[in-house]
């Protein structure tokens, strides 16, 4: 291999590393836990808190703040424009393959209905909004 080819190969590798870093920084995994402001909860959000506590908090933490077992849902990655309400329903029904975080795959959540998930989503969205995530 001549010097010209080595330089070209090195430039390609460096460009690949730069692109990789940009992608990783843009989609960086949430930290294990975040601080969450909890607003007054009304209606479906209030009912959703009880359902969240019973079905989700073990992994996603008190007030969706995250744990070492699951990511915080009060995080920009889970904003409505990136993870719509249907994503939460599908996650509960089918589970989710790990893609944003290093916690491993999320298994399906047995025993929660679509209506339950709707209330859980109302709770999570209320928390997100109170914490500047819309």
CA radius of gyration: 19 Å
Overall strand count: 0
Q: Which structural class should the secondary elements be placed in?
A: mainly alpha
Q: Span from first to last CA?
A: 54 Å
Q: Describe the largest sheet.
A: none
Write down the overall geometry: elongated
Order of helices and strands: HHHHH
| Number of H/I helices | 5
In terms of DSSP E residues, the strand content is under 5%
User: In which range does the helix fraction lie?
Assistant: 40-55%
User: What do the pLDDT scores average to?
Assistant: 87
Model regions low in confidence, pLDDT < 50 over at least 5 residues: 22-27
How would you explain this protein's 3D organization?
The structure is a single chain. With 134 residues, the protein is mainly α. The protein is 51% helix and 0% strand. The protein is built from 5 helices and no strands. The N and C termini lie far apart (54 Å). Mean pLDDT is 87; it is low at 22-27.
């Amino acid at each position: 291999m001549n010097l010209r080819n080595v330089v070209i190969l090195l430039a390609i590798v460096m460009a690949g590393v730069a692109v990789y870093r940009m992608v990783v920084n843009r989609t960086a995994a949430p930290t294990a836990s975040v601080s969450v402001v909890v607003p007054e909860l009304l209606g479906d959000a209030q009912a959703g808190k009880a359902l969240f506590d019973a079905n989700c908090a073990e992994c996603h933490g008190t007030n969706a703040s995250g744990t070492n077992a699951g990511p915080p849902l009060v995080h920009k990655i889970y904003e409505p424009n990136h993870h719509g309400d249907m994503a939460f329903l599908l996650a509960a029904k089918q589970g989710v393959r790990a893609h944003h975080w290093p916690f491993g795959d999320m298994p399906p959540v047995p025993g929660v209905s679509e209506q339950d998930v709707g209330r859980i989503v109302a709770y999570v969205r209320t928390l997100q909004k109170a914490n500047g995530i819309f």
